[in-house]
Amino acid sequence: MSRLAKKVAIVTGGTRGIGLAIVQAFLREGAKVVYSGTSDDSVARARAELPTGAAGEGVVADLADLAQGEFLVERARVRFGGLDVLVNNAGVLSRADEWQTTPEDWDRVMGVNLRTVFFLSREAAKAMKARGGGSIVNIASVAGQIGGIAGSPAYSAAKAGVIGLTKSLARRFAPLGIRVNAISPADIETDMTAGLPPEIRARLTAMTPLGRFGAVGEVVGGAVYLAADESSYVTGQTLSINGGLFMP
User: Fold this and answer.
1) Residues near 41 by Cβ (< 8 Å), separated by ≥ 6?
2) C-alpha to C-alpha distance for 72 and 60, rounded to whole angstroms
3) Distance CA 85, CA 226 (A)
4) Which of 31, 116, 121, 178 is the most exposed place for a label (fewest CB within 10 A)?
């Protein structure tokens, strides 16, 4: 049987990179998926990457608007009958260093990468409670564990916050049967990392014991595992997928 059969999932930032790969993997494993993007074009491009007739629905959502996050949860309920899994993947990267970061940069990065994770998780938990439990998977980053190598203190702080929030929500939601875990990738070959200067890329590769960036496909297996019933005794954990760059 497919590992996610009969499960309904939301994947934010599900129109490209790691998010789209998670959507594709969840659909292959039998889940029904509502995925969000920031524009009609991005949602349309993602839909073209999914199998014809797949049980997936793309929604344009600005998750900084809490009402739009609530709409995602409601859409999963109306379209597919409820919610079992939430993947908080949507994120934004600022490369401004400690001297260049403006208050606007800081607030934007914190808002997308941390604030929305909390409020959407809280809304999702209400729907999961009605189903007897569920799983929340937060996409963090190695930058939140070792600090930003290529600058971006706001991004590092936000992702460290995601890891702390994961532990807090895991404790609070456990009595509801809801597990909360995080995945912490290092640099993965996506459009987000494509713009890294060659010298930064070389430095990161040299620091990584496996000597390369990761592939998107090397992250999705962790997401499927944490969403599936086989991880039913796992909560409050951070799964590091980083080629050995950080070893807790």
Assistant:
1) none
2) 9
3) 9
4) 121
Q: Which two tokens stand for residue 244?
A: 């050995």
| Residues classed as catalytic | 155
CB 72 within 8 A of CB 36: yes
Amino acid occupying residue 40: D
- Residue 90 contacts residue 74 (beta carbons within 8 Å): no
DSSP secondary structure code for residue 54 in this structure: -
Q: For the chain (length 248 residues), average pLDDT per consecutive 10?
A: 94 96 97 97 96 93 95 97 97 85 94 97 98 98 84 91 98 98 92 77 90 94 98 98 92
> Mapping DSSP to helix (H, G, I), strand (E, B) and coil, where does residue 32 land?
strand
Which sign does the torsion angle of CA 192, 112, 7, 41 carry? negative
User: How is residue 193 written in tokens?
Assistant: 């990392």
